[in-house]
Write a structure and sequence with these properties.
Helices cover about 75% and strands about 10% of the residues. It is mostly helical and about 170 residues long.
Length: about 170
Amino acid sequence: MKNPVVRFVILFVAIYGSWYLLYELWLAKNTPIDTILIEWVGQSSTKLLTWLGFEASYQSMAHTVYLNSLACISVGAPCNGLALFALFASFILATPVSIKPKLLFIPLGIVVIFLLNVIRISALTLNFKYYPESVDFNHHYVFTFIVYGVTFWIWMIWVNKFMIPSLKTKS
């Protein structure tokens, strides 16, 4: 295919579409992948809050983060970061760069997104405890903007460090 943008878009849609179908048709129904990731996010958020000096705990059965025995935030499958990991990885995989940097950059990006998600859940927990009237807005808008903004920033690092130099050497 001559046009690199069209090639990228087709590859991206194919990779992400394949992931989405695999997830919806098999993974979500037959594996504990969402539950495991929810646990990691919930427990990690609780550890961060505890490290920061708050009395935090996590209840696995309800997937809920508590602050001073108050149930604050429930972590569900849409908030565990898995879909964003797949979106991030699909973007990197679809670029015309050799596989070696991809194998390093994808896990690093997923770790950054995971840590950002832990910070997000921790912040929402504090938000619920101290300013509950703003939780819905912050959850749906502020933190979504921040998480997707950072993901976009990581993509731009990828583009500038690996993709643009790769395209220049091919011309």
